[in-house]
Amino acid sequence: MSGEFTAVPTNTRAAGRPPRRVVLVSIVGAIGGFLFGFDTAVINGAVDPIEENFALDAMGLGTVVAITLFGAAVGALLAGWMADRIGRPRVMGIAAVVFAASSLGCGTASDFWSLSAWRLLTGIAVGYATVLGPLYISEIAPAAARGRLASFQQMAIVLGIFAALLSDSLIAAVLGGADAERFLGLPAWRWMFIVGAVPASIYGILSLRIPESPRHLAARGCQEAAYHVLANLHGISRDQAERDVARMGATLSSEHRPRFRDMFCRRTGLLPVVWAGVGIAALQALVGVDVIFYYSTSLWKSVGFGESASFGLSVLSSLINVVSTVVAIVLIDRIGRRRLLLAGSAGMAVSLLLMSIGFSRSVSAGENLVLPGAWGPLTLIGANAFVVCFAVSWGPVVWVLLGEMFPNAIRGVALALAASVNWISGVAVNLSFPTLREISLPGSYALYGVMALLSWFLVRFGVRETMNRELEDMSAAPTALKPQP
Which of 3, 182, 335, 425 would be a feasible disulfide site paired with 282, CB 3.0-4.6 Å? Predict the structure, then answer.
């Protein structure tokens, strides 16, 4: 497969400018992130029609939304194990097939149980994408540009979210409402799911044309293939490729395949660096970002905005997310991972507090709630400020960090565990939000604000900087947790 790309004579690694081929391969690796964003956010526009057509209560609706995240937790665990055994691109191809099948299945589901089953399968594919993108890109990218390239995963995620919300809005507009006109016998909300089969097919085709990770090849004892892929991707000499692969081999063993038990130690259970990874993965979800993107259309309608305006506000939030992620890509290899995370945590905490106060000012207007006076615009500003703070920091940086912070010998399984915990935390947020919203909408956002504060303390005291460090350097002190400035 590596023969699809031809070598270039210049070595741009020292200058921090990645070779064009690495950029292109990284983009292909990140397409799974696009499907991750699209297939998880596409339900936003279909929440109300699903609730009405299948006569769901709050728990049933939360199940339909959150079961995808439960599937993602399972898929993430499987992905690390499978990727270490059959290779990164092959598992990408499997994920693409599952994405396409589940998109069609969700669009034609006949009842609550069949829809839930297809949403669960969607989640398994999303879990694969969660692990494979950061893992693959981090292993093929030069250290000086790894942050920017690994951020492609988050850019793809937010573009997927934006595409899903825009697609939902356009389909609803063309067909006269999410549950109105039928096209080829199916209502609009079903087509919102079905269109996901298109990017899934593209992902599957392109996954057949990218090379295997040189670090995976080195771990399997395929030294010659590793030399060829590394020289081909980075545009370096054969001698330099041999030296680089030899360094990889010092932290890998073709006789020992990564196992989950390698992450454990007697004194602290998990290795400290794994605890740190699990912690940041959990808090990325527990700050409540899923609520903004999965429930926003329904949420804005519940506080007085019309259906058209609610769809528009959701698309606006996702567009802000995209622009903010571009800023993160520019900054991540300049100011570092920790500084972005710390600033993002502080900003999220403040914006969530503003949203909590804003929703506490809502008043009844017949059967609906409204935000009086300036509280509507202020709450909207708080929501979009949260999106900006998350997208510039915790959105992309967490996945970059998880792809680089673990030692080579356990990177695949440790990243799989952290990703699985991220999705389990997402399940908790999504299952609980419909009920929390009924109990106290302001209280739910205050809770997410507390999580944002906790995220600041974890990064400040438990995460070390990984910028401009080779992945092999992470193996020198796999239990180190002491932060570095």
Answer: 425
Cβ contacts of 225-231, under 8 Å, gap ≥ 24: 225/2, 228/2, 229/2, 231/7
Amino acid, single-letter form, for residue 278: V
The residue whose two tokens read 């009920």 is 435
DSSP H or E run through 187: strand 186-187
Place of tokens 């997927």: 160
Helix axes 112-140, 411-462, angle to 10 degrees: 80
Distance CA(286)–CA(123), nearest Å, equals: 18
- 114: number of CA atoms within 13 Å, CB side? 10
- Token pair listed for 435: 């009920």
Beta-carbon count within 10 A of 455 CB: 27
User: In this predicted model, what pLDDT tens digit does every residue of 105-153 receive, in sequence order?
Assistant: 988 888 888 888 998 999 999 889 888 888 888 888 887 778 888 888 8
SS3 for 291? helix
Q: How many CB atoms lie within 10 A of CB 319?
A: 17
- Provide the H-helix boundaries in 141-174: 146-174
CA–CA dist 245, 263 (Å, integer): 24
Q: Is 182 helix (H, G, I), strand (E, B) or coil?
A: strand
CA dist 184 → 171, 280, 295 (Å):
13, 45, 28
Q: How many CA atoms lie less than 13 Å away from 186 in the CB half-sphere?
A: 17
Contacts with 103 (C-beta within 8 Å, 6 or more apart), sequence order: 39, 122, 193, 194, 195, 196, 197, 200
Residue 451's pLDDT is 95
Q: Where are the domains of the chain?
A: 2-212+258-475
List pLDDT tens digits, range 238-269.
Answer: 888 888 788 776 665 544 555 666 677 777 77
Q: Which CATH superfamily is domain 2-212+258-475 in?
A: MFS general substrate transporter like domains (1.20.1250.20)
* Rounded Cα gap, residues 206 and 201, in angstroms: 9
Q: Any bridge partners for residue 363, and if so which? A: 370
* SS3 at position 364: strand
Closest alpha carbon to 29 in 213, 228, 225: 213
* Distance of alpha carbon 214 from alpha carbon 231, whole angstroms: 10
How far is CA 85 from its chain centroid? Answer: 23
pTM score, whole prediction:
0.71
Q: Rg of the chain's alpha carbons, rounded to an integer?
A: 22
Query: What Å distances lie between residue 203 and 29, 282, 304, CA to CA?
Result: 9, 28, 39
